[in-house]
Amino acid sequence: MPTTIPGFLIGHATEQSEPTGCTVIVCPEGATAGIDIRGAAPGTRETALLEPTRMIRQVHAICLSGGSAYGLRCADGVMSYLQEAGIGFEAVGTIVPIVPSAVIYDLIPGRDPQFPTVEMGFEAAQSAANEFAVGRIGVGSGATVGKILGLEHSMPGGLGYASEELKGGVIVAALVVANAFGDVINPSNGKIVAGARLPSGEFADSLIQMKDLLPYQGYASNTTLGVIMTNAAFDKEQINHIAAMAQNGISRATRPAHTMFDGDLVFALSCGYKAADINVVGEVAAQLVSEAIVKAVMLDA
């Protein structure tokens, strides 16, 4: 199992009766946070406060969940756990945790929209640890990729993780759930590794299909979400730019990316005191996002 970098803990809750769940990144000491949103159909909570001009400078967790807009309720459970643990801002005699959240659309016909639940958010935060699982777990449980021909011709997505240590002990990591409308591409050779399949079993190549099927109505069960974590010290403006650079990794490993049917976004978190160059960290983050996406469709939980 992967191990997180200092300052971050990761936990999951998975619903066994339905292909869905949530994943939480807990920042016990708080983290400077930013976001970049490029998909046209994002589902989010408390993301406006991440803009550089907003007052809040730190967050205490990031919650990623399935269930489309229903899944945003998982953040209530995360907040409850953090409040009990004393993690958050002190405000008029109480603790207020800041938990920006985002969802993927993993609903399928006949699935009960009561999942994932508030309780699952609590469970995921409570289970957050240095070591964690990846694959078809947590928010990645019901993820799929390559849906241009419909869900029946798609392939499983999942949750992937990649990290790299740079000079001076600076560590950059990417946690990504791949639930894309498009195909997953290996950036090293441009070949499809997961995506829409023809009845013959061959890859359909979503870009070719899009050209042939125009105008296309779309299958709206998508979205790739990423979280960049680093132990380098960046301010709010810088970490927002790192999130923007990191999002390039989605377009390198997903084709097409950032469509009208995706809610693609990347959070970025800084928790540490290491000195690092924003350009280096941003580009490494983009490479790690691509790597994590490929891993997400190649790993089993």
How would the blueprint of this fold be written?
Blueprint: E1 9-15, E2 20-37, E3 44-45, E4 58-65, H1 74-85, E5 89-91, E6 94-96, E7 101-103, H2 118-126, E8 144-145, E9 155-156, E10 158-165, E11 171-178, E12 183-186, E13 191-194, H3 206-213, E14 225-232, H4 236-246, H5 248-253, E15 254-255, E16 265-274, H6 278-298
Parallel strand pairs: 4-7, 14-16
Antiparallel strand pairs: 1-2, 2-4, 2-16, 3-7, 5-6, 8-9, 10-11, 11-14, 12-13, 12-15
Describe the model.
With 301 residues, the chain is of the alpha+beta class. The chain has one domain: 4-Layer Sandwich (L-amino peptidase D-ALA esterase/amidase). Helix content is 22%, strand content 31%. It has 6 helices and 16 strands. Strands 1, 2, 3, 4, 7, 10, 11, 14 and 16 form a 9-stranded mixed β-sheet that branches. Strands 13-12-15 form a 3-stranded antiparallel β-sheet.
User: What about the largest sheet?
Assistant: 9 strands, mixed
Structural class, from secondary structure content?
Answer: alpha+beta
What is the mean predicted local confidence, pLDDT?
94
Per the principal axes of the C-alpha atoms, what is the gross shape?
globular
CATH classification class: Alpha Beta
Low-confidence stretches: none
Query: Cα-atom Rg, whole angstroms?
Result: 18 Å
The CA-CA distance between the termini, in Å, is 10 Å
CATH level-four homologous superfamily name: L-amino peptidase D-ALA esterase/amidase
Count of distinct strands: 16
CATH topology heading: L-amino peptidase D-ALA esterase/amidase
Our count of domains comes out at: 1
What is the oligomeric state here? single chain
SSE series: EEEEHEEEHEEEEEEHEHHEEH
Question: What share of residues are in beta strands?
Answer: 25-35%
Helix content: 10-25%
